[in-house]
Amino acid sequence: xxxxxxxxxxxxxxxxxxxxxxxxxxxxxxxxxxxxxxxxxxxxxxxxxxxxxxxxxxxxxxxxxxxxxxxxxxxxxxxxxxxxxxxxxxxxxxxxxxxxxxxxxxxxxxxxxxxxxxxxxxxxxxxxxxxxxxxxxxxxxxxxxxxxxxxxxxxxxxxxxxxxxxxxxxxxxxxxxxxxxxxxxxxxxxxxxxxxxxxxxxxxxxxxxxxxxxxxxxxxxxxxxxxxxxxxxxxxxxxxxxxxxxxxxxxxxxxxxxxxxxxxxxxxxxxxxxxxxxxxxxxxxxxxxxxxxxxxxx
Amino acid sequence: xxxxxxxxxxxxxxxxxxxxxxxxxxxxxxxxxxxxxxxxxxxxxxxxxxxxxxxxxxxxxxxxxxxxxxxxxxxxxxxxxxxxxxxxxxxxxxxxxxxxxxxxxxxxxxxxxxxxxxxxxxxxxxxxxxxxxxxxxxxxxxxxxxxxxxxxxxxxxxxxxxxxxxxxxxxxxxxxxxxxxxxxxxxxxxxxxxxxxxxxxxxxxxxxxxxxxxxxxxxxxxxxxxxxxxxxxxx
Amino acid sequence: xxxxxxxxxxxxxxxxxxxxxxxxxxxxxxxxxxxxxxxxxxxxxxxxxxxxxxxxxxxxxxxxxxxxxxxxxxxxxxxxxxxxxxxxxxxxxxxxxxxxxxxxxxxxxxxxxxxxxxxxxxxxxxxxxxxxxxxxxxxxxxxxxxxxxxxxxxxxxxxxxxxxxxxxxxxxxxxxxxxxxxxxxxxxxxxxxxxxxxxxxxxxxxxxxxxxxxxxxxxxxxxxxxxxxxxxxxxxxxxxxxxxxxxxxxxxxxxxxxxxxxxxxxxxxxxxxxxxxxxxxxxxxxxxxxxxxxxxxxxxxxxxxxxxxxxxxxxxxxxxxxxxxxxxxxxxxxxxxxxxxxxxxxxxxxxxxxxxxxxxxxxxxxxxxxxxxxxxxxxxxxxxxxxxxxxxxxxxxxx
Lengths: 298, 235, 399
Fold this sequence. Notes:
The complex is a heterotrimer. By secondary structure, chain A is an all-alpha fold. Chain A has one domain (about 1-285): Orthogonal Bundle (ABC transporter involved in vitamin B12 uptake, BtuC). Chain A contains 11 helices and 2 strands; from the N terminus they run ααααββααααααα. In chain A, strand 1 and strand 2 form a beta hairpin. The radius of gyration of chain A is 19 Å and the shape is globular. By secondary structure, chain B is an alpha/beta fold. Chain B is about 40% helix and about 30% strand. In chain B, the strands form 2 sheets. Chain B has a 6-stranded mixed β-sheet, with helices on both faces. A 4-stranded antiparallel β-sheet of chain B has the order 2-1-4-5, covered by helices on one side. The longest helix of chain B has 18 residues, at about 165-185. The relative contact order of chain B is 0.19. Chain C is mainly alpha-helical.
């Protein structure tokens, strides 16, 4: 029972991180209809930036916020400068640019900060004794932080999209950019904003994930998370925010259970597990659980 | 002075111009119709006016040259009801109307206008919280008109509003457009392929053929021309 | 002659200078082809005089080029972006490695198995393409690319796991009929890779001229249109991916023979490899015959050149930046650009090309010597040299 609860909680925690990055993927998809292959690497860059700021003496929370700001600017600039000009050309061109960003950003992190493992401190006390028990399982501070972060971000996004005019305009652009433009909505600004917000949320995911990630902060930290987030976003339907959150939690828990209870898979094939789920979702239910738009199908 | 004065407008996709040297004048408070067959460049003209595609030439509202970005055009008082309605299908009817007021800041006025247009189009009142994508074609067309009117335009552009609608609904739509034209003295530029009903509203008619404006006249003069009548009015 | 020219002028689009037409099968065509073949053979022979180190680099270029030829089939010609070709490369490499070590196969005999396995895995990955496309299909290939190293690590009693497989050079001795000793393995693999590359390129060239090849390009450019033309799009995609996997798997087998050490972590079979292959394809020119070779040359030598001022991650940055810059400024790649330039001067046309035939018959009429089809000195082209960089009919000229 204890072991099960521990695995469940670990799954929920990983799932929260997946969900956060999945939210970023959904934001981008809703803006420009692209799956941003480089989303995890944007988050990686921002997280390293935050780590570096902590090293300069900034409090952790301030560094995380600064990292989010960096993620916002980086992603918004990428949309405006790199993605938008090639989107008209072809989907292939857009994918290639995203792949270029993926490779370039990852290597840039290694180039600037080195390939050795960093320790990103947690926002809250995170010592061996800083835990409380839940059904006999130990819950540590940074675990709670990820749950809270996911809850807060989900709440803020919900408010943004349902209560504000900006959110209304973002939904309008996601639905039909041309119709939105005809009413005077500044679609260009909305697209940059969508990517920017994705970058900021991704940066948060990156900064929070690293104290949890087994290898701490290194150039390979974000990729497995990106894969999980991809699976989560696809399961949720790729354009549904609620779907991303629920999808993230499901993927996190399923992954924890599969690696815990299926000996053939074990701990060595986490990414494969997530990828197999992606393929299954794509083949069996391409619209995910909550997707509203029909994916392009042959 | 004309509410909307288009002169020497050329536009197209890529290198080739689809329409060349188009001139249309919409006098204040009046309705002008542009007739043209499929592919004559009617939609291209409308899209060019609204800044959806690049254009050359002049577009003036009340004598003032307007910008080329879609938002500039709306700000200048020109709203388009696009061909195919451009409904925001995943948004509710109410949200569609709200988006129509994207450039307005007067909350009270927006609320008043939503109330007004849902009164003018009662079908929308019944479905305010429904997703717009679930509406019928006629209802979506009403919504598209109402959404464009939410910007309080001086000039309303309609691109083939009757397309794909049952005759009875088309009649109702044009009756409503005439009411709006009379009550608010909103000027209108209506593009149609089959335009008998639109001509009832119009003070002047322009004929577009293969990207060029070939004739301008009163509705009566068009009806008198047997050949034109056969080709565009269908009787 | 003048009458023909005049008649063509009227239909000729705005080209400043008409290219020389080179009809296939004509004497001039044969001469040009012979010169090119001679030059290539000459270059290959000169390569044998290189130092051991340089020769192994050239071998690496050729092996990478074969892998990229495979990728090019799926991505360049058919438009199915694969981020999983590293795994197909790995499948071939591990097939060769395991067969040599565990089953005492002679290296050369492992290559058909590597090819067949690559084909099979490619087919399996191609099946989802029946239902999904574009971005989503790329995700499926990504799944393959990510799963492969993990699978290798997981089934370590079979694959050597994270520790890797080491094939000692005594198992990689050149076959006795070559007359080469085990210390001349470099030369043997150089020759084998060269012949393989030439054969594979010829195969692809012929494939792209066949009905299947036309269907493949149709899938890329006008999927909906060609489906209504009766092309079985689904079948074309799956077969393309199978063939693509077969070629890349073959390259993997060669790689194992050349390197002799396989590991899931070294970057040879990970996503990094996929990105390297994609970069090579785009540098050289997606959907061109020569592109894979040119691109592989650049990607193998570029990191080496730049590593003199810095090491490691710079190649990742370079690949990333190169990809983006290419998409913006030279989407047709080096070979594609060369084709456009060369086509301004010379065009190779099929022997049934109407202009070439008209010219030939006019020669007949004016009492000229009938020689079949000779190059047309001032004949007009039906089309101006365009950016469709994959016109198979012109590929002979860019060689």
